[in-house]
Amino acid sequence: MKIHLYTLLVMSFWLPALTLAQTRDCGRDCLIGIASEYLDALAANVPEQAPLADNISFVENITHMLPGEGTWATTENVSETYRIFIADPVQSSIGVMTIIHRQTVDGVSPALLGLRLKVENGEITEAEHLVDEVPPIVDMASLQAPRVPMTTAVPERERMDRETLGRVAEGYYEALDRSNSSLGAFAADCERQENGMITAAYYLEPDTFEQVDLEGNPPPAVARDCIGQLDSRRFAYIDSIDDRRLVAIDPVNGLVMGFSHFRQSMANGPHRMIAADGSVLMWEEKRDPYDLPAVHVFKITEGQIHEVEAIGIFVPYNSALGWQ
Fold first, then answer.
1. Are strands 63-65 and 290-301 parallel, antiparallel or unpaired?
2. Any idea which fold 154-316 has?
3. Going by C-beta distance under 8 Å and a sequence separation of 6 or more, which residues neighbour residue 41?
4. CATH class of the domain whose range is 22-146
5. Tens-digit pLDDT profile for residues 37-75
């Protein structure tokens, strides 16, 4: 059989290229493409449509599962417009925050999904979900698309290196754990959203978070900006923030995704709190003990945290660390 010289030349270029594509590190576009395939497969409830490795480790809400279980079985669709990608070619990982609709006992309901994927040789070897329903009080119109900075590239001359981004993100956990904003780097316009709700912003008036403890007592009104809220010691009941993992660092967009596990025994007794008017009082929040596995995405520019997106789920106190 005669093979035309042109065909041989084409094959000589393509065959090595295909081999390299299967073994090379996955860049930003590659990671985002794989994550998009994963989301499409999740929406279709067909794990086989995603490039999953045979030995994949899959954890959802700190519980080890098999692909096809959990939200794989209940997802109706995945938002095409609310997607935050945190691509990290250095760690061969990508984080995603998005909105899904899934089947529940009450029908189809929206939920927030924080997702981490580890990619090796074009296949997903690790997948980790943190998923929780969108609270009924949240206006779904606010979740049609992420805040603009979360999907906006940082000008190249202003980009920070991975080590600096990681250090700033780690400072968030230290500041929260120790109720001391000086341990972190917070911009004056810092805004934190948790489970779709704004929980800290420079323009919010002090309030009581519309919550009461087991005895019906609302917490004292404290500052609502990121710095003032931390320094108020509003969160001094936190025992520790364990299993802190910066799973994806993206200098191009100035984003860092972190997973963590809050321990809250609620057994520390009264602690000092600074109210919005500057007065100092002793406060004890009476609640049942609980843990809070969480995922955070930080937007960091000019060395400071400007935006935070977070998802947290309530689980029994002293629960095992799901990924480990």
1. unpaired
2. Nuclear Transport Factor 2; Chain: A, (3.10.450)
3. 47, 48, 49, 50
4. alpha beta
5. 999 999 999 999 999 999 999 999 999 999 999 999 999
